[in-house]
Amino acid sequence: MARVAVGLGVRDLAELAGVAQATISRLERGEPLKPSTVAVIKIALEGAGVEFIPENGGGVGVRLKK
Protein backbone atom coordinates (compact mmCIF):
# COMPACT_ATOMS: atom_id res chain seq x y z
CA MET A 1 0.00 0.00 0.00
CA ALA A 2 2.75 2.45 0.94
CA ARG A 3 4.70 1.81 -2.25
CA VAL A 4 1.69 2.43 -4.47
CA ALA A 5 0.63 5.51 -2.49
CA VAL A 6 3.84 7.30 -3.47
CA GLY A 7 3.75 6.02 -7.04
CA LEU A 8 6.67 3.62 -6.86
CA GLY A 9 6.89 0.39 -8.81
CA VAL A 10 8.55 -2.70 -7.36
CA ARG A 11 11.70 -1.95 -9.37
CA ASP A 12 11.76 1.67 -8.16
CA LEU A 13 11.48 0.75 -4.49
CA ALA A 14 14.06 -2.01 -4.86
CA GLU A 15 16.53 0.51 -6.32
CA LEU A 16 15.84 3.09 -3.59
CA ALA A 17 16.29 0.49 -0.85
CA GLY A 18 19.25 -1.25 -2.46
CA VAL A 19 17.56 -4.66 -2.45
CA ALA A 20 16.43 -7.10 -5.13
CA GLN A 21 13.00 -6.78 -6.74
CA ALA A 22 12.24 -10.27 -5.45
CA THR A 23 12.78 -9.01 -1.91
CA ILE A 24 10.09 -6.35 -2.34
CA SER A 25 7.75 -8.98 -3.78
CA ARG A 26 8.44 -11.30 -0.83
CA LEU A 27 7.69 -8.48 1.62
CA GLU A 28 4.42 -7.68 -0.13
CA ARG A 29 3.38 -11.33 -0.01
CA GLY A 30 3.95 -11.29 3.74
CA GLU A 31 6.96 -13.58 3.71
CA PRO A 32 9.46 -13.12 6.55
CA LEU A 33 12.52 -10.96 5.90
CA LYS A 34 15.49 -10.04 8.05
CA PRO A 35 14.73 -7.06 10.31
CA SER A 36 17.64 -5.16 8.75
CA THR A 37 16.13 -5.64 5.27
CA VAL A 38 12.73 -4.41 6.43
CA ALA A 39 14.47 -1.41 8.01
CA VAL A 40 16.16 -0.30 4.76
CA ILE A 41 12.88 -0.66 2.86
CA LYS A 42 11.10 1.40 5.51
CA ILE A 43 13.77 4.11 5.29
CA ALA A 44 13.41 4.19 1.50
CA LEU A 45 9.63 4.56 1.77
CA GLU A 46 9.96 7.32 4.37
CA GLY A 47 12.36 9.13 2.05
CA ALA A 48 9.74 8.88 -0.69
CA GLY A 49 7.12 10.54 1.50
CA VAL A 50 5.48 7.77 3.53
CA GLU A 51 4.80 8.23 7.24
CA PHE A 52 4.30 5.07 9.28
CA ILE A 53 1.63 5.31 11.99
CA PRO A 54 2.08 3.21 15.14
CA GLU A 55 -0.66 1.13 16.74
CA ASN A 56 -3.14 3.56 18.28
CA GLY A 57 -6.19 1.44 18.89
CA GLY A 58 -7.12 1.46 15.21
CA GLY A 59 -4.15 -0.57 14.06
CA VAL A 60 -0.85 0.14 12.42
CA GLY A 61 -1.01 2.14 9.18
CA VAL A 62 0.63 4.53 6.74
CA ARG A 63 -0.12 7.96 5.36
CA LEU A 64 1.61 10.47 3.13
CA LYS A 65 3.72 13.14 4.79
CA LYS A 66 2.36 16.66 4.53
TrEMBL record:
Where does the record place the HTH cro/C1-type domain? 2-31
One MF term from GO for this chain? DNA binding
User: Which segments does the entry list as coiled coil?
Assistant: none
Q: Name one Pfam family in it.
A: HTH_3
UniProt name for this protein: XRE family transcriptional regulator
The organism is Pseudooceanicola sediminis
